[in-house]
């Protein structure tokens, strides 16, 4: 709806152009006036309804206005003092600003957005003070961000799809304060790919106990949320993980993550050696079959890079039992396993946020930040990868009746 020029001229009359858009200028006045107008309209509606309600015995008839009470609420840009209308019966419950609400709609979203970008509680407090002149206590900011945990809980227990063609399990290392000391803790993510190529983060788990017991609990939780089958689980050589997966999903094929193997291999190299070593490793995982891959690995070991970086060959041989299943798949499926750009991009953004934050006071703080980051990143996960059409046909051939595409 267009605002008439006459109204705009009246509003702008005698106003300083430099302060029009400031919170103390016309914009702030308009926001306050509109909020109070809405509250008064709510009161009018409330009093109109009150006159139509039959008065019970002993109740005083004739509810009416009873002045105003002052209330300071925090908006997105300022602290605003509003005149809240009262009624004689004290039965008015405003909808715009609820009875015990101290924050204007949108204020919480601004705090959560800053928190999601890795800002600490103290940094958010300083940001609000410096830019908007708002004094928000650390307790208020923590209360706003803690409200996210309820949503995280609902998300973490939501039903999952019955079948995932691929599930990538990955770990982030975060610094956590625990009993007065800061130590590294693992936060695990599970990213699934459905038969129609849609990517989905299945859950976040912060490691409480190590080994098979922890992973068995994770697998049991996934199954209880509706997952009946996982065709291929891609893991990073985590202790006790393959056994835990097969204890719950007996037919799932375990595959060592090629991307992680390459990444871990390059950790042994200097920056100038990484590119040629990566090129040499490509001959292994792009080999035609397991025999050709074993020959390529032997060639790498006997070559100059294998002799210079003995630890790389040793690591590949340790994981070889869970590498060779990779070569049984057609090229289209193999490409889906080792070409994980979306997942690598997700991990890079999460690691950046974790690095900026430094360390977390507890598990809940880490969970909040990682979940908020995931929510933003996965908004763009709408289309399946370009390779999925070819891979889908091969999955149907390899896995038969176990692979079913919905729709």
- In the predicted model, the low-confidence regions spanning at least 5 consecutive residues are none
Which sequence of SSEs, written as H and E, runs from N to C? Answer: HHEEHHHHEEEHEHEHHHHHHHEHH
Helix content: 40-55%
Shape: elongated
* Number of helices in the DSSP assignment: 17
**What is the gyration radius calculated from CA atoms?**
30 Å
Q: Helix- and strand-based class?
A: alpha/beta
Mean pLDDT rating: 79
Question: Which keywords apply here?
Answer:
single chain, 407 residues, alpha/beta, six-stranded mixed β-sheet, two-stranded antiparallel sheet, 17 helices
Brief synopsis:
This protein has 407 residues and is α/β, with parallel strands linked by helices. Helix content is 49%, strand content 17%.
Written description of the protein model:
The chain is of the alpha/beta class and 407 residues long. Helices cover 49% and strands 17% of the residues. The protein contains 17 helices and eight strands. The protein has helices spanning 5-12, 26-52, 107-116, 121-132, 138-146, 148-156, 212-224, 241-248, 258-266, 271-285, 290-302, 304-308, 310-318, 331-338, 341-357, 363-377, 388-399, and strands at residues 65-74, 79-87, 163-178, 181-193, 199-206, 229-235, 253-256, 359-360. Strands 3, 4, 5, 6, 7 and 8 form a six-stranded mixed sheet that branches. The chain has a two-stranded antiparallel ribbon with strand order 1-2. A hairpin with a 4-residue loop joins strand 1 and strand 2. It is elongated, with a radius of gyration of 30 Å. 25% of the residues are buried. The model has no long low-confidence stretch (mean pLDDT 79).
